[in-house]
UniProtKB/TrEMBL annotation:
It is a multi-pass membrane protein. PROSITE patterns: ABC_TM1. Residues 63-250 form the ABC transmembrane type-1 domain. The keyword Cell membrane applies. It is found in: Cell membrane. Pfam families: BPD_transp_1. This is ABC transporter permease protein.
Length: 262
């Protein structure tokens, strides 16, 4: 690689970093503005907007409500996605291509179309809009990502591990629980964090399938309808910090588990 190529790639990299982080930094700074209007310059600074979040019972409830939905939808998606991945790892399985295509389909359908379809199907099944409907929709949307991540991990599992377990008298269930599942744990953890963040951030399906209790993205959208304010920036910043902490923890934990499995 020539010197000019390295300089060009460095410029592209730092341009991308600025493109991503400058808007986030501006959003965080606007949460400290001592005014109800967004804009520069910031003449005075305050923590009132951030402190107000922890004093606002509605906002705290919405954070908890969104977290519960994300947790339950992630549990369902991980169980179903892992089971499908193990099923698809058997290359001699009849209909493997069809099942793989159907598994990936929810991730390929545009969000709005998916949300409308879920709303119609929920009405057909008699499912009322609310928490259960949102969990169901989020779980179905997240299953493809779990299946792909776990499949990628399964492809690196040495066949000798399962063969050794069978030689020692383990049946398929014991082999899965004692050999395959521990090997898959880093991938399952990574898929779980990814699904949590997807569900927590999902607006379209939450908007179409939600009842009278909004999730966090729907609440932010509702507040934005009356105009931008530092309160919205503060709520978004708190959500950003929470997801960043979870992401960093998951990355460190996954690396530690990978080292232990080597």
């Amino acid at each position: 690689m020539t010197r000019y190529s390295r300089v060009f790639l460095s410029c592209v990299y730092w341009g991308f970093v600025l493109y991503i982080f400058v808007p986030l930094i501006l959003m965080i700074l606007m949460g400290f503005k001592d005014s109800k209007f967004i804009g520069f310059p910031i003449r005075s600074w305050t923590l009132d907007w951030y402190l107000g979040i922890f004093e606002d019972t509605e906002v705290l409830y919405v954070f908890g409500y969104s977290a519960v939905i994300a947790a339950f939808s992630t549990i369902v998606a991980v169980i179903v996605g892992t089971w499908i991945a193990v099923l698809l790892s058997n290359r001699g399985f009849f209909g493997r291509a069809v099942i793989f295509g159907l598994t990936i389909l929810p991730a390929l359908v545009p969000g709005v179309i998916s949300a409308i379809a879920f709303r119609i199907y929920a009405r057909f099944l008699g499912i009322e809009p609310g928490m259960f409907a949102i969990i169901w929709a989020h779980a179905v949307h997240n299953v493809p990502f779990v299946a792909l991540i776990v499949l990628a991990r399964l492809s690196t599992l040495p066949k000798s591990y399962a063969e050794a377990a069978r030689d020692l008298g383990a049946d398929p269930l014991v082999t899965f629980l004692r050999v395959t599942l521990p090997y898959l744990m880093p991938a399952i953890l990574g898929a779980s964090i990814f699904c949590l963040l997807l569900s927590f951030d999902d607006f379209v399906r939450s908007f179409f399938l939600g009842g009278y209790e909004p999730t966090l993205p729907v609440l932010i959208f509702t507040k934005l309808r009356s105009g931008m304010s530092p309160e919205v920036n503060a709520i978004a910043t708190v959500a950003l910090v929470m997801t960043a902490i979870i992401g960093v923890w998951a990355e460190q934990f996954t690396r530690r588990m990978n080292k232990e499995n080597k």
